[in-house]
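Appendix C reproduces, verbatim, an entry submitted by the partner laboratory led by Prof. M.T., so that reviewers can inspect both the input and the predicted structure.
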Amino acid sequence: MKKDDTVTTHGSLQDTMQVSSIVTRVRYGFRESPVTYTHLSGVTLVVTYAVMLLGAYTSAIGAGLSCPDWPTCYGTWVPFLHSGIVASSSYSTLQIFAEWAHRGLAMTAGFIILGTTIGAWLAYPNNRLVTWSATGALVLLPTQVLLGGLTVTENLQPFVVTTHLGVATLILLCLLTTFLTGWLSSREKMQYEQVP
């Protein structure tokens, strides 16, 4: 073994130890941090429910097609930066904002669901109910995104709108299962650790 090989092997070992340390911190960091996995899964549940409520509000005020294209809104990501778009639309500013905000919040929820699923596998690798309910929400997410787009492109066809709501409800149930199971597991673990 040459001197250069020793340095490379030592450097490679050091890199491996650093990666292992990062994974350990991610896996066990929830236990040492004031923000726990239960907090993350609870926020995900609330944000997802808020997306559903905002979608219902958007529908109730007749704004389901106020952004006539998808995934953009009037060909842009932020239609309010183009005053001519809002001024020339047959929809009110509130209607356009409601649909635009629904899409933005849904995108945010999607990323949080991804984080919640990764967190479930790191924080509760041996709890199948936590991991698989979070994974179920993540697996349903692409279908939900596709249905959201079809809701617009198919001009609010009742079957598409109803299926969009149905999949959202399934995602919410998966996240509720993830939250409650994680919360009960963490309470049980805290009680076990307090027993002398």
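Helices lie at 3-32, 37-60, 83-88, 93-123, 128-153, 158-194. Additional entries are available on request from the coordinating office.
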